[in-house]
Amino acid sequence: MVDLLPEVTGLWQHVEATAREHFRRAAVAEIRTPLLEVTELFARGIGEATDVVGKEMYTFLDRGERSCTLRPEGTASVVRAVIQHGLLSQGPQRLWYGGPMFRYERPQAGRQRQFHQIGLELLGFADARSDVEAIAIAWDLLADLGVGGLALELNTLGSPDDRVRYRSELVAWLEAHREQLDPDSLARIATNPLRVLDSKVPETQTLLAGAPTLADALSGESHERFAAVRLGLEALGIPFQLNPRLVRGLDYYSHTAFEITSSQLGAQATVCGGGRYDGLVQQLGGPDTPAIGWALGMERLVLLLSQADRPSVAAATPDLYVVSRGEAGEAAALPLARQCRAAGLAVELDASGAAFGKQFKRADRSGARFAAVIGDAEAGEGVVVLKDLRGERPEQRLACAELAATVLQALVGPLS
Ligand code: ATP
Ligand code: MG
Predict the structure, then answer these.
(1) Global pTM?
(2) Which residues' Cβ are closer than 6 Å to ligand 1?
(3) H/E element, 276
């Protein structure tokens, strides 16, 4: 688990603010759920046969002997909340969430045990256009942030009926090739055969080139739906590659599945993953509700942005640094700083009581454009000396009451 230090939080805030703005423009509302849920929710909502539930969860008994789990992802919690509060009776829901998720994985670049996601869930939308809209929201956000080397990979899992048919074809084929499969894939034949397609073992991937494909098992209706999604993306000018190996192995996933990857990330290339989960709301005890969503990994996104050659996002650089000296000067400094803060300026107050020279050095180091200097003489007259630390404006002696307005004007107005 990782601390986010001040040198990076500026970039995090920039990403979060950009995401917030994109959701606002798309009329998507935020939902916040607890970090802790009963374990049962994830067992049912993600599936016992998945890696996440099988070996990655932080699960423990609380003092009331209930099995609790730190959320490993956001969708199950959002669906639980939507059902619990009857939100679907008010109509379809357009929701986003953000925050920490927890998975007991082997930590490496772009993979942590506490990581952060931002996610979108569109609940109560069945049309292929909602798939296109969901993908477009992710794509536009990443493009707006300036993420390079993006690729959208797209697949369809068909309807549950298609998949039942395909599943038995695939299982028969895998059984016939048992001796060539790796141990993980062998174990999955019984638990989660579709997940074998997703194997990271190169020999297995080569072997799978000869396996039956889901595309061949799709019904006409599923074909048409997938064609509509592709046409919609083409109409928006969003490029994509078909990837028949892209699967989400759970029964309630259906139709569209997608990932957005970046060539600028190493092994952990997927920034955003999502798909349609028409069966999940019902699976968790709610009304039969079609839905599509995605989740985006913040660490990988921030990694990409910090690698890119882009202007750094300032963390907390002050506009004004207040230097004071002497009893009356020091007493006047905090009210002055407070006044300027109330006017909207970022103000750092030097409370060290050190010599002027030392305070000025710190003022320079702070990155502030201006310093306000107040000694006993100035305090007695109710004035302050304003210094441009870049030396572009002459030093100015002005009434304390005028300081904030003068600095604000100087920061936004033309240089005089
Ligand atoms: P992966 O195959 O990389 O493990 P996943 O299929 O487990 O990904 P999802 O559950 O779809 O990932 O989560 C969506 C996104 O969250 C991922 O694409 C990734 O960007 C991010 N993510 C997932 N697990 C982690 C982790 N342990 N650390 C950092 N980011 C993660
Ligand atoms: Mg994973």
Answers:
(1) 0.89
(2) 73, 103, 105, 110-112, 115, 117, 268, 270-273, 295, 297, 299-300
(3) strand 270-276
Å from CA of 56 to ligand 2 middle: 9
Please tell me the distance between residue 41's alpha carbon and the centre of ligand 1 in angstroms.
19
Q: Give CA–CA dist 360/356, Å, rounded.
A: 6
Reported as a pLDDT band with limits 50, 70 and 90, residue 335 is very high
Taken in order 258, 262, 266, 272, is the CA torsion positive or negative?
negative
pLDDT of 199: 86
For residue 347, give both structure tokens.
């103000």
Query: Which amino acid, 339?
Result: Q
247 alpha carbon – ligand 2 mean position (Å): 13
C-alpha 52 to ligand 2 mean position (Å): 7
Nearest CA, atom 29, ligand 1: 111
- Cα gap 399→372, rounded to integer Å: 11
Q: Determine the Cα–Cα distance for residues 62 and 58; give it in Å rounded to an integer.
A: 12
pLDDT grade for 284, boundaries at 50, 70 and 90:
very high
Q: Return the residue whose CA atom lies nearest to atom 23 of ligand 1.
A: 297
Give the number of whichever ligand sits closest to the CA of residue 103.
Answer: 1
Beta carbons within 8 Å of 321's beta carbon, 6+ residues apart:
347, 348, 350, 362, 363, 366, 368, 370, 371, 372, 389
Helices 128-145, 220-235: inter-axial angle, 10-degree rounding: 30
Domains of the chain: 6-159+219-307 (3.30.930.10), 320-412 (3.40.50.800)
Q: List, for residues 242-258, the tens digit of each pLDDT value.
A: 998 888 656 678 999 99
| Atom number of ligand 1 nearest to Cα 105 | 27
**Distance between CA atoms of residues 55 and 125, nearest Å:** 32
* Nearest-atom index, ligand 1, CA of 112: 28
By CB neighbour count within 10 A (0-12 exposed, 13-18 middle, 19+ buried), where does 273 fall? Answer: buried
Report the alpha-carbon distance of residue 86 to residue 290 in Å, rounded. 16
Which candidate, 244, 251, 295, places its Cα nearest to that of 277?
A: 251
CA end-to-end distance (rounded Å), the chain? 50
Q: Which of 15, 111, 114, 142 to mutate to test the pocket of ligand 1 (most atoms within 8 A of CB)?
A: 111
